[in-house]
Design a protein that fits this description.
4-stranded antiparallel beta sheet, alpha+beta, 3-stranded antiparallel beta sheet, 4 helices
Amino acid sequence: HDLYSARGRAWHGAICDRDGGACSGGVAGRWFCRAVLPALAIIALGAASPAQAHPHVWIEMQSDVVFNDQGLISGVKLTWTFDEGYAQVALDGLDTNGNGIYDPAELEPLTRENLESLKDYGYFTHVRFAGKAQAMGAPAESSQTYSDDKLRLQFQLPLVTPVDPTKGEFVLNP
């Protein structure tokens, strides 16, 4: 009984006997004790389950427009620098030779995984030329590096059809 506040005791006493035992208060009190209290207990237990959070990754992005030999815009080169928290989780277990350095071969599976995951989101990159959305090809020239305590993903997204920058406005929205 010490666990109830004074207000709680008054509420509790209205539907149960003073010892917290059998329900009283007529049909309504018995219904409350048999139906509502068990339901509230189940809800409370469900609410006490471990929280599941969707992880978020913070990046710093650099983008460069890529031109081909004919002077047409042929794609964009992107460099993503990941936040420290993601880097620590992503790098865990990748230093397979144990030398403390993440070489390209060790980072290659992570690069593939990152690019495959980003594919469903269009690599968070949208290009418009002369007011029309431009189709992007599969990533090319991709790599990942870890240096100066920074994990960086570099890749190039080619335009399916290169565009002439003198014929319209090129807009990149990464």
